[in-house]
Amino acid sequence: MLLTIIAWSTVILFMALILTKKMHPFTAIVLIPVLMAVVGALLGLYQAPAAKTLDIPVGDVTIWDQVTVLGTWVKQGLTKTSGTAFLLFFAIMFFSLMLNVGVFDPLTKKVVQLSKGDPLKVLVGTSILSTVVSMSGDGTTTTLICCTAFIPVYKRLNLKMMHLAVLLILQNTILNLLPWSGPTARVIAVIDGIDVQALLNALLPGMILASLFVTVGAYFLGLSERRRLGVQHLSDADIEEIFASTAGPDDALKRPHLAPINAVLTIASLVLLIAGIFDPVFIFLVGTVLALVINYKTLQEQKERIYANSGEVLATVIMVIGAGVFMGLFTNSGMSDALASSMVNVIPPQLGGFWGLIVVLISAPGGFFLSNDAFFYGVLPVLVEAGKVYGFTPFEVGFASLLGQAFHMLSPLTAFIYLLLSMTGLDMGEWQRACFKWCLGIFFIFIATAVVMGVVPLYR
Asked: Where along the sequence do coiled-coil regions lie (predicted)?
């Protein structure tokens, strides 16, 4: 009971500090779990997990052992997120260099030319491109491609950067349910004998409707921006003048004479990334080195570019490190399991006939407060077994557990959102609030579609 209270207190306190802007996200995501974990250790709540980690009998575990093992758990958490940290480190450095050399300038200019200064067209284009790129199943790839393409456009047309960050994450949230993405792949792994094609067929109608909902939302957001800014009806000459007038000191970093080589390097990196031929870390590591050597010949120029872009890298990677601390302590201490059990055990047996709907409702906070590994590998098996007692098939329970993913991308435990927030310069709390109402709409669409199709019965 005490462990459950500490687990919920950790999550609630962390989110409260973030949403009220009382503490920097990195400070909160490290300090709060560390403090709460120390409290649990001093209360002697970690005997079993500490014995497992230290490989000693439970009876031999002391209070001091439970305190000192926290360092080991943090290290294990950092090890799990290190791959993501290295990926983001080199990916951000690579794309920062590509922005420096101006490789996306022609694309930016083309988007502006097609929109002719119409905010509505830009926002609808943002939604569509986010949908297409999200089919890769990787949030980092989607963020890098869409942000590098659209951020210059949004800045030049004075559009709200929040719209870009919201539309991108909403479409990525929806497409993240494809079988080759994280959550659905975990459901397939946990539930033996599940029909992958049947699962995809059940998910697609809700995904399509939700994606259309977001695109329609982009249309109305575009109308709002059009009323605020107007349509500039830019001619090609006007567009050239805009780009010329925004020239600044950074133009000295651009390498227009090397544009074909840089374009090939960028496209090749993205093709290799989506094709999965090499590990993404290797792709961006080599890409970063090649970009430096090709575009900046001298040692001084290379040092300046690395130092200048390191701020963007640090702002994102440090949050991934923080998430590793949180996950290491939360998972290894048993707080994750305690929180998951409390979510399941709170349901009275008399409501068993509504188990499908209950699983859907559990999946929303479960997907937000827990990592996908913790929820699908820890909570889902319990939900499946309970569902069998109430007459629900593993397929129905597995499908229902995916619908709460409508909120998962807003979770501080989702690593790539720190890249998105860093690139757009947005505050996490404000961004979460802006996204929530749209995520709620997506959630209702998922539920309504599932009920109409009979995939998740309202009552059995």
From this structure: none
